[in-house]
């Protein structure tokens, strides 16, 4: 692991960033581009959760599983798939993309932009002041002239269940950094992490039981969870909706885990993974020194400035502000906040009006998300239920992908569904959801339409290429016009 400790003689910087994941790197990059001096504090690997235990490793692991599934949907290609996936090759691929958990490349990026890295636990110690405690106990004080930006991310929530410690459960970290395939794996949680890990480990040969209290992917349109549930079941995953774990036992640390379920049933597995939510990494960063509650999500305005702290100097970006626990959305916040900090430092006006240069408006209106399951599920904006609850007068438009010849050429017997949610008063899209093989690459077109508030009458002039999966747009717009 590469290590730089920064110039300890200069402990005053324009901006101090807590957390060197993608979010922290973005705010540092934009602040440096504006000429501000920046210190970045990191207690683990530079690159954070996303680079080593979440987005990057999970997608590196999932791609071989989905590639084989895609091949099996095409006549002529499926005959070439004659064996099981090589798990060793998949793990080696993952290791390449996480650079064997060596963060020297990302350390070099921070050096290249002129930011200084300080390794250790960073804690706020009053206004514009951060202490850094290194592993060897040495302590350094950093002072920020203009801003401290908290980008410390989040960690997994584990339920309070008898026997939890004894069971030594997996979280997303073990789910993405393990290099052996458990014979039997129970996954608790039906959100994005749960369904992706079920797809992955079943594809690598594990017998997977997915336990969820409610239908899968509950924050998306209902049909998304239904199609993903069907896809998991077709792959051999035992999906149990309404199931809860009430107790765990693992008397032999090397032996199986016994789960007691809420219906009185018992399940025995080799490993159990919990994907039951996230909690912010704010319990040990000194929030109490500025009047905030340790361990809390941080309430921010549209410029990511933390509310309730005097002096307009504390910012919170990414998972910690609870707007959207997605790397790409956190990076967007980081870019915006870096520009805001620079503008305020220079005394320039801040454009925080909706869709302004210094407002994270997309956090409320155009958050895209993709789940790399089989089929894939992607969505941006509001669901029909969310839009109606927000007071919009809406029309939903639904089509099956079977209407698009491009989809059928992509995969024989292509199965998928798409929905638009239209604001009838303004004639613009409020939300779009796609479910089907390969739909992740369709999502940005929907994001542009939603974020850009492109009028429906103009969207009809965006001609779709034939024959592609994106032809589904033509059928959605035609269905809207004829409704």
Automatic annotation (TrEMBL):
The lineage of its organism: Bacteria, Bacillati, Actinomycetota, Actinomycetes, Kitasatosporales. Binds 1 FAD per subunit. SUPFAM superfamilies: FAD/NAD(P)-binding domain (SSF51905), FAD/NAD-linked reductases, dimerisation (C-terminal) domain (SSF55424). PANTHER family: DIHYDROLIPOYL DEHYDROGENASE, MITOCHONDRIAL, DISULFIDE OXIDOREDUCTASE. Belongs to the class-I pyridine nucleotide-disulfide oxidoreductase family. Residues 13-328 form the FAD/NAD(P)-binding domain. Gene3D superfamilies: 3.30.390.30, FAD/NAD(P)-binding domain. It comes from the Bacteria. It comes from Actinacidiphila yanglinensis. NAD(+) binds at residues 189-196, 277. Keywords: FAD, Flavoprotein, NAD, Nucleotide-binding. Residues 367-473 form the Pyridine nucleotide-disulphide oxidoreductase dimerisation domain. GO terms for molecular function: dihydrolipoyl dehydrogenase (NADH) activity; flavin adenine dinucleotide binding. This is Dihydrolipoamide dehydrogenase. Pfam families: Pyr_redox_2, Pyr_redox_dim. FAD binds at residues 59, 122, 152-154, 319. Disulfide bonds join 50-55. Its cofactor is FAD. GO terms for biological process: 2-oxoglutarate metabolic process.
